[in-house]
């Protein structure tokens, strides 16, 4: 059955700020803004949260799994293996009928590589594995998730969906866009929910940049 409720919710690419999306999703679920008929869309970490919501698992369960993934990467490293670790976690955490729950309801953004990269929205899936492959593709930062510049999805060379569809549209007539970054300070327009909604707790762009630089330095030490 195709989701028809409005508004829909679009979750931005977020990287390691994925827990922010978990908190937003929990609030929207608690308030009844997200139901089983609410269209969802996401890119990268945003695609993961869409699948988690559609799966019926709780956000608290997802947070615990996120901590397990983080501990694995902390102890064994991240570079070139994050994709395999993420896929293993998703296979264990998500239900076997995931594709049925997601079909027509969630849109996963990916970037297809051609003479000019273009964004694609995937909203029909053949199996649980197909959904997970779409999510991995949507999250595929070249050289980070695996030691290759791109990944194959349905015989197409693709990379991270956030490069072309940072906050993809849903199938609803109206879409509320959710950004894990302080949208106002970054000059992003039309954002419905972001850390700007809680100015006393939000990170500044400088703090976000410092976190990103720290992550980059960690990755560089692993690679070189």
What can you see in these coordinates?
The protein is of the alpha/beta class and 224 residues long. It has one domain. It is built from 7 helices and 7 strands; from the N terminus they run E-H-E-H-H-H-H-E-E-H-E-E-E-H. Strands 1, 2, 3, 4, 5, 6 and 7 form a 7-stranded mixed sheet that branches. The longest helix has 19 residues. The radius of gyration is 17 Å and the shape is globular. It starts with 7 loop residues before the first strand and ends with a helix. GO terms for molecular function: triacylglycerol lipase activity. Keywords: Hydrolase, Lipid degradation, Lipid metabolism, Plant defense. Lipolytic acyl hydrolase (LAH). InterPro entries: Acyl_Trfase/lysoPLipase (IPR016035), PLPL (IPR033562), PNPLA_dom (IPR002641). It comes from Aegilops tauschii subsp. strangulata.
- Along the chain, the helix and strand elements come as EHEHHHHEEHEEEH
Question: What is the tally of beta strands?
Answer: 7
Spans of at least 5 consecutive residues with low confidence: 214-224
> Strand portion, in percent?
5-15%
Number of helices: 7
Form type: globular
Task: Please bin the fraction of helical residues.
Answer: 25-40%
Largest sheet, in brief, is: 7 strands, mixed
- In whole angstroms, how far apart are the ends? 50 Å
What number of domains?
Answer: 1
Mean of all residue-level pLDDT scores: 88
- Name the assembly state: single chain
What structural class results from the helix and strand content? alpha/beta
Integer-rounded radius of gyration = 17 Å
Enzyme class: hydrolase
Function: Lipolytic acyl hydrolase (LAH). Possesses non-specific lipolytic acyl hydrolase (LAH) activity. Hydrolyzes phospholipids as well as galactolipids. May play a role in disease resistance.
Motif (GXSXG): 42-46
Active site: 44, 160
């Amino acid at each position: 059955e195709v989701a028809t409720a409005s508004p829909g919710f679009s979750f931005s690419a977020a990287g390691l700020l994925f827990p922010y999306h978990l908190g937003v999703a929990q609030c929207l679920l608690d308030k009844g803004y997200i139901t089983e008929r609410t269209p969802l869309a996401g890119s990268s970490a945003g695609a993961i949260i869409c699948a988690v919501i559609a799966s019926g698992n709780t956000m608290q369960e997802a947070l615990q799994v996120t901590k397990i993934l983080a501990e694995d990467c902390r102890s064994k490293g991240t570079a070139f293996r994050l994709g395999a670790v993420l896929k293993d976690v998703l296979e264990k955490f998500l239900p076997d009928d995931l594709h049925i729950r997601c079909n027509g309801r969630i849109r996963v953004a990916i970037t297809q590589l051609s003479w000019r990269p273009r964004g694609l929205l995937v909203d029909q899936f053949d199996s649980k594995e197909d959904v997970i492959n779409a999510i991995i593709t949507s999250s595929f930062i070249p050289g980070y998730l695996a030691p290759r510049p791109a990944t194959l999805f349905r015989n197409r060379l693709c990379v991270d969906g956030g490069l072309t569809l940072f906050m993809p549209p849903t199938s609803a007539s109206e879409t509320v866009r959710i950004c894990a970054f302080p949208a106002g300070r970054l000059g992003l327009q039309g954002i419905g929910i972001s850390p700007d909604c809680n100015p006393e707790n939000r990170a500044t762009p400088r703090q976000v940049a410092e976190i990103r630089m720290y992550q980059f330095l960690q990755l560089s030490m692993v690679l070189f």
